[in-house]
Predict the 3D structure of the following.
Amino acid sequence: MNIQRLSLFISLFILLAILVIGGFFHLWGNTTEVNLAARFEPPGLGYPGGTDELGRDVISRTIQGASLSLSLALLAWIVSLLVGLALGSAAGYFNRGPIDVFISGLITYAYTTPFIIFLIAFLGLIGPGLVNAYVILVLFAWAAPARQTRAIVIGLKDAGYMKAAHSFGYSAREMIAFVVIPQVFKPVLIASLAIMPEIIALDAVLSFFGLGVQPPAPSLGKMIVDGMNYLSTAWWMTMIPVAVLLVICLLVRNLANLMKQERYGGKD
Amino acid sequence: MSMHFLRPLIENIVLLFIIIVSAFFLFTALPADPVRSMLGVNVSEEVVRSLRSEFGLDQPLWVQFKVYLSRLLSLDLGTSFVTRRPVSADVFPSLGASFIYAGFALLIALAYSILSTFISWMSRPVIARSLQAVHATLVSIPGLIIAVAIGIVFFHFDIFGFIDDIRTRQIVTAAIVLSVYPSAVLSQILSQQFREVAKQPFTLSSRSFGFSRTQLFRIVFKSSYLPWLAQLSNIAAALLAGSIVVEFVFSLPGLGRLVQQSVIRSDYPMLQGIVLATSISYILFNLFMETLYHYLKIGRRS
């Protein structure tokens, strides 16, 4: 086993561990229980990560919050991948047609304007909540896989098997479903793994604004913002969630890079 | 040649129109009843009706749309439900404040990317490679998270405490915090393209003519800056989004706080105004960047 594959498995293992342990906390832990006798405990033997302003254990809340945002991001990633594949292959297949103009206009809009503001405003409109936040994450994340898919499909146009399938009399929908999407699925899947950190970041941002996971359930973004008020006296309340957020993003990005190398043989 | 300038113009005008229409339907037509959600449930029908007619919400949809369009033409973004003041009176100053952070951050990032490419070009490969590694690490973390993480350190230790004026200190700190991620991205793009161009035969021949290393930098830079410039639109968009988060987290004056307040108070006209103002200003910026890009590209060819 080479070192690359080892690092891939370690990244995957840590992420899964966070997901699973956080899930345990979610089911059986008491991370929302208030204990006013133990407010602002510094990290020590009893509380390895210290406690927050209500005496809740920071480490277990961080892990639970991380697991929650990871699972949310995972779901949003899968759905946005499917949406992006469908829209991107339609746009690429009907390259320069009205469908393409419309879809690539949307993609351009999502990339070149501060789309997040639009999404936050929209979320304010439909009200905060887990499901709504999830819809927003998908609305944010679909553009990257759609753009990648579109670029690949445009490149596929002259491939022999496309012409062959065309000569079989496939309709446009059949071409996209049975020829184009199977061809672009794997590269787009791997490439779009790189947007996972962005989804996690947006999830944190939504909870900064109080629009993501609702309290008392822990979320990394909310923990960071709340901890900012006590930064000078209780640094652990902010620093631990920030560190975990950074580590998760690095691990996911590492995973994405390694999978890309695994597939394309070490080339970028 | 005119096609190069006309196409983005038409595309952006269509995009602008789509945004204006969708902003209208999202914020005016879709929600069940903005007046109800603002006043709560325990209000008599009278009050609701009078308020609705005050904001023109009892008119048919197309009349409202016509009023909305004619208001937009005179840069009037409507009246806030909460403060009863014109939305533009709040949106434009906040947007301006955010643009200042983002703009300075962009300038820092541009300067840094040129500087780091210059340093990698002038110095030994070890330094170039370590700079590359640092940039690669920074790029792999989302910009918003980097900004918040570094901002915590900056604001906590008050590194720029020696600046007396509070406003200047806020701008400097926010701009530096925000510029970290775009600096890394732009440096990566610029130095990658720079290395490609530096391998070209014309670099070698210029070298053989006896140009100094600094002069060579200028020659190679001239043929390698276009992809770097093309990235600016995306970077600028990401910067404003980052700016909003940083402003909100560190409670600086700007768009971030306005967005959050309007979301909490369900102030739909304000949210609509924010979306319209940011989108329109970015479309104008992108149009400018695209035109500049094509201008420079054509200028280089002839």
Observations:
- The interface with chain B takes residues 105, 108-109, 111-118, 120-125, 197-198, 200-202, 204-205, 208-211, 224-225, 228, 231-232, 235, 238-239, 242, 245-246, 249-250, 253-254, 257 of chain A (CB under 8 Å).
- Chain A has eleven helices and no strands.
- Chain A has a mean pLDDT of 83.
